[in-house]
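Listing 4. Sequential folding, example run.
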Amino acid sequence: MSTQLTGTFTFAQWDEKPVAGADGGARIAHAAVTNDYAGGISAAGTSCEYTIAYTSETVGTFVGYEFIDGTLDGRTGSFVIEQRGAFRADGSIDCAFTVLSDSATGELRGLTGAGSFTAQGGRPTSPYSFDYALEG
């Protein structure tokens, strides 16, 4: 049986660097991101690495991994999520994420789950939802 929780996260830092391609057109970039989570997930200063494939100045898709060390519904530990999403022409960002198998530690060992968020361009804080189970 899974449990659903919600909360917010805030982009604390976004450091994006071009890898290949032309400004304004198709290109690849790398972003190192730090987030702060509140709500069902509580974690400060997470570490996230994205690879972004832009098809225009502001539209593109991304994949990334984020290391989260904190609490989940009051249980302490760490885990890694894999994120896949898209930057839309209207400035929004849609993302779905899953817990990387066998990545959880501490009281979170056996964690599985998936979630999502939609961020609005220009707003540093966004809501997320997360369905999870603790096995074992």
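-- end of first protein; second protein begins --
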Amino acid sequence: MAEYAVKCAVDQAIQLSAEEQARLEAAFFVDYIDIHSVPEGQLASYQAFLIHSRILTKQLERFTQCRYIGVRAHNTDYVNGELARQLGIAVRGIPQEGANAVAEHAFALLFAVTKQLSAASHNVQAGKWREGLVPNLELRGKTLGIIGYGTIGQEVAAIGAALGMKPLIASGRGGAATSLDGRLSVEDVLRQADMVTLHASTQAGGAPLIGSRELAMMKDGAILINTARGSLVHEKELAEALRSGKLYGAGLDVYEDEPVRDSLLCELPNVVCTPHVAYFTRETIARMNGNLIDRAIAFFEQNFK
């Protein structure tokens, strides 16, 4: 018997263990749904949603009984926050649980690009050996530009330093350098770095952080890594910089539109793409799911018991 008379819809993108399901179902009446295919009329029957997919405005408008949306992410930009407030819906994310996993994935992409791992693996599988390969790059001694210096950016800086790289740190979207902590402006980091990795947050309705202007600032032959948000990068302009040879390569885990369909960017030979899985380790998922459930239960315990 559920402890609270609350119907809770769980996005099927969130894969809960049997133990996690049991804990959630002890608190709420739970349905597991595909949030993008469920009949719109059904959305009005839930008081709580736990999601890991973007909620369209037209869907959110149907959440007429909803009082709580839990987002399995640190950033809650999957939901139109202003509209949610107008509807009286509390939107809550979870603490940053995947910093180590995302930092490791950023370097996995960086190694894959610099060592041409996709092309090299394809060659061996196709019996072509070293055909078409060129000498690859070392990381030691390279300047690593880190844009966004929260928990993930700090992990990336530590790994980079351990590999013998020189981290340059920018925080935010441009502006003057902050002399107190040695950070540089975004523009200065772009101009000086051999390899740039993005860990900044997005701004609602804001322009991409990296477009043609910023790409032109980067060194010839530089590398761009994005494991933060797809909206940080103008994909068509990045594709042009990659096709022209301005950039050596790019490693991407996030995209303007997800899931990716027929992306010309991901078809380029100097791009390594992964399907938004930087955070997706067993350890991180267990922590994220636990926090997601804990916060939902705590909200209704505090507000509706």
